[in-house]
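We close this part of the discussion by returning to an individual protein. Part of our work consisted of pairing the sequence of a single chain with a tokenised description of its backbone. No coordinates are needed to read the tokens, only the vocabulary itself. The amino acid sequence and the backbone structure tokens for this protein are reproduced below:
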Amino acid sequence: VMPVSFLIMGIGLTYSRDIKLVPASLRSYWLIAHVSFSSLAFGSILVAVGIAALYILKEHSEKIKKDSQGSDSFYNRLPSLKTMDELMYRFVAAGLLCLTIMIGTGAIWANQTWGRYWGWDPIEIWSLVTWFTYAICLHLRLNVGWTGKRIAWLIIFSIFILAFSLFGVGYVYSGLHSSYLTS
């Protein structure tokens, strides 16, 4: 998680250093809840991606170990593949729960600020796309039986949708959220 944190901090340093106050119309306790659950969701899913990457590396290491009969101490210290699979599931589930609360608190905050719960703003749409992406991950694991390497790859690929909804939407689309992010 630390390399990703440093990367995000580096990206943050490239932005303008001018301090801008949040407009009075947007100041609300719902803002705190919305941003807090957003951070929890992204953090939880980022941990799931890290576990998924380690799962794939460990599985590959075990396949090589069977062929060469060698010992690899780093991978031996990791939890079992079954435990890592369960951890991926739990962190994605926690992330989905936090995404759900994030969208809900954002809707309440939007109604309080703009008089509507949902306005089809690009950030709102991509937040919903991200929510569906991780809901599909959980559905495939629980109801279709995807586990292990297959679900690990899906979690890894899904992070690109999350990253786009977090970083890219404001640059590609214009809307209420992007005007506050880039102004």
Q: What stands out?
A: The helical segments are 2-13, 29-68, 73-77, 81-114, 122-144, 148-172, 176-182. The chain is about 80% helix and 0% strand.
